[in-house]
Structures are given as C-alpha cells and as structure tokens.
Fold:
Amino acid sequence: MEFRTQTLEAISPVVMVVASPEAEAICQSQNGLTVTDLLRPYGFFHHLSVPVRTVGEHSYRIKELRLRFYEASAIYQPAPKVAEDHLCAVLSNAATDVSHAPDLLAALKKGEVPDALPWFKHYREEYMRMLRFSEHETFDHPVACLLVLSASEPNVVQAAEEMFQTMTLPPALRDSSSQATLLRHHVLLADDRPQPATSPDEKLPEGKLAEMKEGLGDAACSLVRINSGDKDKRSGLAGLWHSQIRSPVEGGGAGEPASKPAMPEQGYGAALSVSDVDGLKRSLEDFAVRALIPHLEMRVRNLSQQVALTRKGFKNQIKTLLWRNRSATSAAILSSATSNGADVPATPLRTPRATTTGVFSGLSGSQAQLRQLADTAFLVQDFQTAASTLRTLAVDYRSEGLWHSYASVQELLGLASFMIGASMQEVMTHFKEAFHRFSPQERDPSRDGIRYATRSMLLLAQYASLHGQWSEAHQGLMRAHLQEEDGRAAVLLEQAALCLLHKQPPNLRRFSFHFVLAGLRYNSCNLRNLGRHAYRQVVWLYEGRHWAFIEEHLHDVLGKQSKAAGDLHGAVRHFLAMLPCPRSSPSWQSFYLRQFLDAATQLAANSPEELGPLDLPLPAVNIRNPQVFYDNQTCHANGAARAVPAAYWRRLESLLLPGGDAGQNWLDSGSKTNLASLHNEVCVAGEAVTVAVQLSNPLGIPLVISRLSILAQLQQPEEQEGADGSILAEEVEVTLAAGEAREVRLQLRPLVPGTLTLRGITWTLSDIARGERLFKLKAASGRRATRDQSRQAKLVFKVIPSAPLLQVELLGLPRTVAEGALVEGQLRLSSRGGSVSGIRMLSAEPDLLLDPSAQPDGVHEASAAAARDQTAQAESTASIGLPQANVPCKGQAFMSSWGPDFCVDGQSGPCSWPMRFHPRQPGRCLLHLLWYFEPRAGEDLRFRMLRMVHEVEVLPSLCCQAQLIPAPDDLQSYLLRLQVDSRQEAESTQLEELVCRSPGWKLEPLASAASPSLSDPAASAHSPPSSANSSTEVHGAHSSLLQQSPDCSIAQLQQPLPAKLQALLYFRLHPPLHPTPDQSKPDLGQQADAAARFHLQGQQMRHAKAQAVFEKQQAGQPKSKHKPQQDPVGAEQKQHASGSTPPAAAAAAIAPDPSQRWAGGAPDLSLHWHLSSQHLHGCHHLYKCWPKGEAGVQMLLKGPAQVQHDFAAQPLCRVRLQLSLRNFLSGDVTAEATFGAAASDAARASWSTPGPASSDLPACHSHVWSGRKRAHIDTLPSGAINHKTTEVLLSSEGMHNLQDYQVKVKDGLLLISGTRGLNDAFPDFTGKRQQLRQERQEFNFHREIRLPADASTASGHVHAKVVEGVLEVTVDKVWGPQASDRVDVQF
Amino acid sequence: METINSEIFTLMYGSIVRQLITDLEDITEVNKQLDTMGYNIGVRLIDEFLAKSRTAACTDFRDSTEKVAKVGFRMFLNTTANVTNWNPEGTECSLVLEDNPLTDFVELPEGCSKLKYCNVLCGVIRGALEMVNVQVECDFAKDTLRGDELNEIRLKLISEGTEAYPFKDDD
Amino acid sequence: MAAGSVLTFVIVGRDDHPIFEADLTSKASEVVNRDDRAQYLHQFVLHAALDAVDEQIWTTTNMHLAQVDNFNQLRVSAYVTAAQMKFLLLHDGKSEDAIKAFFKDVYEVYLKVMMNPFFTPNTQITSPSVHQRIRAIAKTQLKA
Structure:
C-alpha cells in the first residue's frame, strides 16, 4: 500500500553523517557525491526480519527499514522566509515551461485523469522537506551519528574522538544530554584507487579498522571501500542518485548543505564498482541491524519506563499538576532540578549504555518524554505503542491548551492510527483536527501554524485520494487553500480540482471554477505561465455556453496574457472572441474593439502574412440564403423590375415568346414551354451579379466597414488562370450605426466565361482586421419551392461569354403627371456590347404608346426607312393581330415589334422613338415593359428578354360626366350635356375644345353653363372619376393630329375652369344621316392612327378591367380588395380573371345598348384641356354616352312659333303644321295619326294645363283641325323619317293648346301633349341662348314619350302632367312592370 | 356541444401560425394565408352555426353582426364580442373582444410586429357572412398583442344579398 | 458585501445554457456596471453550482432543492423543474421559505413563457415583460 510506504519513508530513523574533509575529498573528487549522498541510496533495507520487543511481552519483526542520512550541519529547519523563497523557486521552475503539462480535456476524453499535475508532486515533496526538523516533533531528530573518516588518517581513533567532540550539532541537539542519546558509529572510508606509490609504512585499511575496533568498540566500526571502479567506463549506477539528490536551500538547512558539488560529466558515482556498492550496502545493513535497531529498541524501553516513572505515584501527579499550573518556562528550572544525577556534558560518553541513564533529564517535562517515546516507537514501527502514547499525550495537550503541540500530535496520530489499520474516518478526523488546531485561531494571529495545517491537509488529501475518497481530499485541499498565500493556494486549488475530476461523475463545472480561481491566484503571484495553463484547461468547457461574463473574463485574461507573452495570435483570437458583447456598455465595447484592433495591427506589423482573414463576429452577417440577382436570358433594367414577381413577367414572356400562348393557364404554359428554353443558372460574362446580404451591428458603437465585397471564385475550364484577374468585385464602404441593421447590395462581374462560385463575403473592420464569412444555403422547404424561383439563392453559376444587351431609356417621362395628361416622351434604344435585332416590345399598359409614324432619329436613312415601314405594318399587324377572343389574357398587353433587319448597335449610337404617355386612372401607375431581342453575336443566347418597370404617380385632374339627350326640337340631333369637375388642387384648367372624331358626326356648341358653384361634394362623392359613365378615356391624338384626321368636328371652347369648380357644357350633336355599315365599325386597319388605336385599346382595357372587377366582386375573392394600382399581384390576378371573361361580355360592355341606335356605335368624343402653368396637355375621352331611356318611335309636330293674324280681316286663321315621325326601332312600324275629335276625350280631360306665367294671352281651346283628320303611314322603315302635313284653323286669338291629336303606332302608342301654347312651342335655340340659360324651368315643353318597343301592346292610357318643370308621364300598370319607367327630362 | 381543451387549441393555433411564419418568411403573406384559412373555415362553419344555434334569419347587417358577436363567438370561441362604433351609414362597425382565447400566453417576438395573429378570425367572419350573401371586409383594427388596449375587428359591409331582407318598393 | 447586495437569478437550460439571467437587486439596472468584477464571480459560482444541483436532484423528489452550494458568502439555491430546467438564485442569506415562494411564482411565469408558441424551448428568454414580472416577484417575495 503506497501511503504506508510513503509514511515509512517520511518517518524513519535519521542518521547524522559527519565526514572528515579527507573522506569527503575521497568521495567527491571521484564521484561528485558528498558522503551523505553516497550513503542515501543504501539506506533502504527490505526483506529483513529483525525481531523487536519494545514494551509489552510480545515481540514483532521489522521487515523493512529506511534510514535517512543527513549532514550534521544541515539538520535544521530553514527560516520560513527562506523556505517560502525556495518553494516559489520550485514553482517558477515549473512555470518555465508548461508544455509537458497534460491536456486535461484529452485526458478526460481518454478517461485517464492524472492524479496530480506534474509540478504538484515535486512541490509537495519540497514542501514537506521544508517543514522537517521542527522543534515540536522529534522523529526528525537524529538517532545515530555516523562518523566517516578517511582510511589514510594516521591516528584513526583520536581523529574520531576529535571529530565527535568538535562536530557542530544540529540545533535540536544543542543540549549535551540529548547529544548523549546519539548512537555513535564509525565508518572508515578507504580509497581503493590503484595508488601510484604506496609507502610501505602505511598500514592497510584493514589494520586501521582493527585498531579502530579495539579503540572504539567492535560493533561501532566498519570499513567501506570505494573508488575501485574505473572512472572512465561508467557503471550503470548513476540513476540511483538522481532521485535522491535534492537541490539545496540557500543558506543550507532542511537536510541539505548550503552547496553541493556539481554533477560530474560522467554522472554520479562514476568511480564506484559493484563490489564497492555491495560492501557499502553490507556495512550499512550491518549497522542498521546490529547497532541501530537495538539502540532504538532500548530507547523505547527506557523512555516508557521513564514515562511510567514520572507519571506514576502521587508525587508525580502533583508534579504534573504543578507543571500544568506553571508556565512552560518553569520547565527548564525544574528540569535542572531533576537532572542533578547527570554527568558533566564535557566528559565524553563512553558507551551508549551509559548514555541511556541520563536521557530523560535533558528533555523538559513528561509531555516531551511522551512525545519522544511516541516518535521513537514510530521509528521502530511499534505503531501500537506510538498510537496509545500519542492519545494520552493528546489528552494532556488538549487539557493544557497547547494547541500546536496538540495538533502535531494529532497529525502523527493520524499516521499512526492509519498504520495500525484504524478506520478511514478515524484517520481523517485526526488529520482534520490537526488542521483545525494548527490553523491560526483568532486569539493568536500568528500565521506560523498555517504551514503545518496545510501539511496535515496535504497528508489527508493524499491519504483520501489514495483510498478513493476524492471528495474528502477535495474538501481538505479547499479548506487548506483558503488561508494560504497565492502560489500555494493555486497549487492546492488545482489539486482539489483534479480530485473533482476523479469523482463519479466528474464535477466538470466545479473543476473548471477551481481552475479559474487557481489561475487568478497564479496571476496575482506572477506565475503567468501557470495561470495561462490553468485558464486554457477550462476554456473549452465554458465556450459557447452563453455565460457571457465568464467567457468575456476568460478571453480577457487570456488575451492580455498571450499578448504579454508575445503570443499575438492567441491575443488576437481571444480579443476577437470578446468582441460581440451586446450587454456591456458602449465604453467597454469600444475598449474591447480597440484592444483587439491594437493586437491585430501589431500582428500585422510583425508578420503580415500570418494575419489571415478572421472569422470576425462584427458586423453580424446573415449568411443564410443571401439573395442573388443576376441577368441571364432575362435581364432587368432596374430594381423595380426585379420587385415585380417573376410570375407576372413569365406571363408576359409567354405572350411574347413563340408558342407561349399554349393553354389557358399561364403558369403551366410558362413553365412548360418557355422557361424550359431559358436556362436559369447561367449568368453572362461582363454583367453584374448582385448579392444582397443583411448586415447588422450588435454593438452600441458605430462600426466602420470598408472593402466589403463578395468572395467569389471563377474556374475556367480550359486554362487554370488565377481567379483574381477574371472577377471584378466592387468594394463598398459601410458605416453601421449603433444597433443598425441594413441590407447591402454587392456587385461583382465575372469577366471571362467559366464556373462562378459565390463563396461568401469579406470585409475590413476599421481598415485593420480582415474578416470573411461564407454563405450557407438553407434547404428550400416544399412550400417555398413553389415560390418565386429567382429569389432562391443560387451560388454556383455557369458564366457564358458576354452577349450584347439592349438598353432602353424612357426620356421625358416625369415622375408625376395629371390624370388624362398627354406626355410627349422619347424611347431611346441603344445596345451594349454588340448589336441586337429582332426587337419586340410588349407593354402591359396601353397608357404608353409608341408612335410609329414619327421618324426614328439617330438611325441612318436606309435602315430607318426599312424600320419605319416594317414598324408600321408590324405594329398594325401586331396590335390588331392580338385576337381578343382566343387569348383573352392578351387583352391587357399590346406588342410592337421592329423588323428583323432593324438592328441597334453600339457604334451608331442610340436611336430614339417618340412616344406618348397618357394615364387613365389616378394613382400609382406601373409601366411594365418587356423587351425581346436577339443578339447578333454570341450563340449561347438565341434571344434575351429585358424587363423594365417605370413608375409614375398620376394625380387626379378632371372628372367629366356626359349625358346625351335627344333634342326636343328635331328628330336627328341630340343634346350633349357635359359636366366637368376640376379636381386640380390649385391651378385652373384651360378647357380647349371638344372633339368628335366619329365619322359623320357633327358637333356644334349650344350653350355653356359654367355654374361657379364651389364644387359640390355630393357630385364628386357619387360620381368618382373612375365611375362607369364618366371614366376618362384616352385618345392619344393632339391638336396637330386632329387636323390630319379626315372627318372630325371640333367645338372650340376656350374656357378656363378654376380649381375645384364645376362647369356645365351643352352641345348639339348630329348623328350621321346615313350610317353605312362599313364605316360604322372604326376600322383601324385602314387608318393607322395612334389615337384610334389608343382609343380601342383603352376601351378593351377598360371593359376587361371593369369586367374583372365585377366578376371578382361576384366571386368575392380576397384579392378583389386590392386596387390594381397598389398591388402588382392583385393586378396580375385581375388580368388573369379578365382573360377568362367571355368575349361576349366584353362586347356587351363596349355597347351596352343591344339595340344599336347608331350602327357606328357611340360617338367618339374627347375633351381637350391643358394646364396653364406647366405646359401639360391632356384629354379625357367620353366614350360611353348614350341617350337615356330606350329607343322607339319619335314624333314631332312642327309649326310656326308665332302667327300674326288679323281676325277682322278673316275670321279663321290657318296654320300649317308638319308632323314628322322617326322610327328608331330595328323593325318597320306602321303609324296612324288622328287629329281632332278622333282623339280620346278621356285623355284630354285628364290633362290639367296650368297657364304660363310669362304670357299675357288668355288660353283658349277653340281650334278646329282642317284638312286630313287622319294620316296613315303603312310602313315606316327602321331609321327612316316620315313627314305628314296638316292644318289647324284658329278662330280667336290667344294661346292655343293643341292637345287633341293622337298617333297610333302599330307596336307602340304615342301620346303627345303640349303644355304650352303653340306659339312659342318651337324656340329657335340658336337665337335664344340667353333665354336658355336663364329660364331653365320654362323649358319643359318636351313632348316625347317613348314606350319600349317590345312591351308596347296596343291600347291604354298615358297621363302626363307637369310638376315643377318636369314632365312626368305615368302609364297604367296594365302594361306590366317594364312600362313603369319614369321619364324625367330636365335641363 | 363537445368541447376541446382550450390550451391544446391555443397551442395548436400558435404552432400553425409559427409554421406559417417559418415557411412563408413574410408577415404579410402569413396574414393573407391566415385570412384564407379562416375564410375556408367560415365557409364550412356557417352551416354548423345555423344548425346548432337555431337563430332566425338576420334582418339586416346590424342584426347579423350582433349574431356573429354574441352567438357565434360564444359558440365557437367561448367568448363574446361587443358591436360598437357604427359609422353613420350603418355599413361599418367594430367587434370588440373582451378576451381572446387564441392569444393566451402569446407574446409577439419583435420580428413580427406586423403580424395579425388572429387574422384567421377575420377570415372566418368574412367567409361565414359571405355564405349568407353578406359581403364584408374584415380586418384587425386593434390587437392587444400589438400593444393596443383591446382586440377590435373592423367590419365593413361591401354588398348585401337581396334575399337578406324583403323586397321594398320605394316611392 | 452587505446583505441583499447580491441577488442573481438564472434559468439554466439544456447543456448548461443560461436562457435567462437577471440581477434582481433593487439597484441593478438592465445595463450592468462592468466595473465590479462581482458579475464574473457570480456567474462562475452559479455555473459551478450546477454540479451540486446535479448531485442533489436525485436525492429528493420535490422540485425545490434548498441551498445547494456556497462559495464564501455566496449561497446558491436551486429549483429544478420536471423538464430539468434549473432555476438558480445566487444570494447571501435569504430565508429559504422566501426563496421557495419566489421559485414557485417564477415557475408560474416560466410556464407562461413556455406556452407562448413563439418561444422555442432552450433559447434565450428575451421578452422584457418576463423580466419585469420576475423583478416584481423578487420585490414581493424577497424584499429585494
């Protein structure tokens, strides 16, 4: 058992060696060993069997024995200061290199944890050694004295005597009496070197021995021969001494002389032969067995007798009582009193036997005797006696309160009870007690006991750990370290921590904490290396566990130390780890940053090549799924184009690409046919690849980031050229404010074809530290796979050779325009890197028009001419060739394409085309343009697509409501009532002209009632500008264009409309007389007129949109909430839905009146205006004004307004009237007019006719119809007009009311009633504008009641009466619900 | 009717929302998705509602909102809402939930301040009302999760089915 | 250090990751004053105490293990939930009953947090409201 051997080693008889200088010389000169060192290896005797009987009758046998040899001069305890310095030196030696220290993490993984750190064992031994020879424990006192003389001594005996008398005694033996207890032994050291010349008179060593024996006694002498070996061929013995040689303490002490011979180059003991060693061994064993053991045995016996003597009997009891009462100082006096029988110290002691008599007198008091007894018994391995003695002694000391002595007794008692196999618990309690008593109590603050206390704890820890009691050992060491000073405390802490590792399960966290504490202690006593070692051992355990402060602390300390130790790499690494500390205050953050940067700069200065890119935590980079934007076959002109979802573009592309229009669903058609042809993961050399990365600054201080760029790598298939030259990566400077997060877009351009791999990003922090991060790709989940593909990050591209790229600019297109405004712009085409041809443009918004008739400037004539006519016919075919019915989703887009031989190349500069922009709806208008072009050069890309989006904000300008009323005075013309609300904020709009551009129509201004009433909110409320009947419609024409267009009638009205006001305009509108079917539908094929085309597109667009909205609301999809302007997705949905509308519905939307009143459709009216301030022209198109109510048969009775007649001259006045009928029905009708009595009286009676206020003439009913009372029109063809003349005879003056006539139509009944006199029944409008404007309420002479053609079954009554200027006609219900319509005509 | 442990319910809903966020990665998308889910629920739920709660046919919008607030929420969410601040036209109103079991334990992370956590409710109301020909727009005006003091769902009548109330002749 | 000057509460999740830390002393503000090195020591002590907690978990059946460890004046009391989440309170001599009550209330708060669908277990609890609530509990229970 190891602890046992250690104990036996620690507590074993001490032999004091006194060597004559000659002897020393003999030994040292050859072997580099002092005599003591020479002896030491042979002080261990095993397989002995020496019977010993001390006290009691049973004898036991000593199986093995150790002797400790010390030089006499060195047997004392060095001063504490010296000892401490020595120990510190030991530690600092250990600290010189800690490379051999085990890596505990690895050890732990392997499961073999070292019992102690390498420097711990040595330190422990040295510590123990420094505490030897203490005055309160006697087992370190020498029990024998070995006098070593040289055999060449002339007079051996005398020399020995002198030596014995003159030798310097160790302080413990200063008093002569204890010196007398020494066992003397003499060794004759013979030098066996072959003497060159041996003088004959000199005796052989044997002779000397003989005379010595008879002089000093037989047993006390022995002869040792050395140096017989050959010095040059070394003996294999050197190793014996290495473990024994102890480094001396300066000033000597602790068993070692102040200085020692240096180790010779041959190694220790070179000159010793095996025979020498054997002789030495034999003689020492001889000495031990024959002299030493009996001597000790005898001492034990004597001591025990003595003790029994002193402690027995009443007198002694009193004595001991007195001793106890007296102070310890009185012990000396008492001892002198008791030692009267002792010999004089000066007289030499003859024999050991004699010496034993006076032994006890020298030692003070019975406790000292007891202690001596116990120690000696321990030395002879009589542990029973030792233990029992110590117990009694402990009781004594305890009762006297001599705590130090008590503690040391307890310590030894622990060992003893271990030796006699007591329970672990008992052993450890002894140690603990010792510790407790050694440690300084509060009443004596002397730190002297601490060292011993620590020693006892070391013993305890060793004992416990050797017996697997790790936690006990740990506790002991922890208790010990608390009161120790730094260096030792650190060592103890480390040892305690190791104990924790040995526990099951290992207490890693406490272990690491202890190590950190140890590191702190080391640092505070400047043992940096050890401190670093301690920290390094435990960093792994804390790292990445989010204990912010802990990691910060560790890295802080480690970084500083590494920097101090010159390990800049380590410093940078640790300072780097400290950087992200969001929780600490900005001042600290900046401090950390600074110290990191300093270290980095130093490292860069020392060894620039070593400072590679670091894994900088600042700024925080989101490396998951960076967004990559790049152009392959489809290019993007601007960022807005990328923002539009690719599905929308794909739909447009499907329109533009051949075979794109397969299938109703754009998704599958797009994915199947087209996108298969576009390969996505290629990018074009020379064109930019943009990566959007998210940077964020976790700290509270701004970060300066420079040279931020993409880390990419381009492999060229053919020659492995370095990637640096072939990539052009732009570098960005960013400064992130505190806590700021931002998206940075980085560009790079591959210059040569190959395979491009985006690896990550790299940047420089504050122009010093270079950092980089590599991208990580997240696996796309199933749901996201269906989403926009272009947003998915792809990091590997195939770079294909550079291909020419079309560049398009929209010039002169302002950011904000007014609704209905007409903006002249220019479309500039140019190309980069080669020429492109086969250009086609697809515009999703018909608001933007390319004007083909204009001359493309910048193109040389030939190609220009070619281009023009190509364009002309191509566009016409293109825009007409969109079959609305088949592929409805094309209803929204229109295409214009250039001829195949029209090419734009980079050399001849850009060529630009005039274009017009005419927004229809207020709000945010996104112009989506998709360009298709075919590069002339580069076979990799057959064609390319360019997507561009232009955003314009449209402000509301005017709101027009048009109303068409059949004119009251003739059957052809109509009244157009136009209500214009200005929605301009500030400035006034100048209304220029109203243009009717439908062929055959005539427009004449009638009246304009500009009511300067502030725009009534009601009107604006219930008629928003986008409502159906007032929706502004485009025709792209301008005044200049109007002159060209063949037949259009213009009503000039130069009239300013102030802001927020309302104007009422009246016009008379003459429909074409003979509508011809060929002219009816405006054929755009013949007239390649931009305006007309605009108009057509506008209509289709509008109806499709309206239809879409309508349907959406029916279906109640959630998307229907979104306005097309706001949400591209919503818009896209709409267009999709509009695509699915049946064409019939669209047609119906175009012409809501199934019975086409005019074959040519509605008149094509447009109101032109311009804003005075900004030279902005605009026009609103009124495309959907129909007369109210239904078409039918209209009639009119005409005659002179006023008749002057002289009744005196002739009693009867004959007035000629003309009745004209017009048939608006689709079929023919037959009509019959009856005048006079034939008309029903009931009808007439029911009419109450209020007299007019204005006229002075009395009303009278006396009139007689003359001529034909009945006119019959058998067939009145559809659209035809028939005139019948009749006469009426008037007999008296006055206002005549012609009411009694009736017209019967075959399918339809018409009743005409006049509410005014005949005389002013037919005002001449042209002459009476004034009147029209003022007396509006008097204009209720309208006399037309139209019944719907279908429901007009013959008979029935119609009552008409006038309520405040409104002619109301209610018809009896017998005609069914349809007839219950209510015609109110109001001017 | 049979009941389900409210915590299970709440956690289920929460995990659904969370999954949506992780999948769609866009809060507005998530709101839309929630609304659509709710719509599909409401479309089914209305029949259950009409069958279980034998309520008379609603006479007008006010009536139906009251029914939704008082009966519907009580039935399916075991809470009730108050119908408040009507606009003068009587086409808009707010449902104010005094407590919302969906949002128990819920605390929005700072990333999702725009998230309308309970948007599914809007969808349900919309879908259910649509089945009885009442087209409404429905949106969360106030949300306790976003720091408002109460949960307010804003209802806006778009169009009302004609058979919702008897034919009147106006003269 | 004077009594009541140390009061640090930590919730430790799997792999010893602290998912919640709060200095509950009344003076403490959110941004800690880094000049006092006590912060380091506290974390070290708390972290080291986990070993003691692991040892004592199996000695008792109830969640509240009383004081499990101490270092000089610093005492560590622990409370281990069923899911092995460890609540550690570093204090200097509060009464065990108060601490027990404190843990009990904090456990309620913790349950609420766990029920939040947006909270992933074993991640940092960053919600300020939780901080406030726990602080309030500390005020009432521990008179901090």
Notes: Chain A has six domains: 3-77+136-246+255-302, 314-341+349-467, 620-632+680-800, 805-952, 958-1182, 1193-1371. The domain at 314-341+349-467 of chain A is CATH 1.25.40 (Serine Threonine Protein Phosphatase 5, Tetratricopeptide repeat). Chain A is about 35% helix and 25% strand.
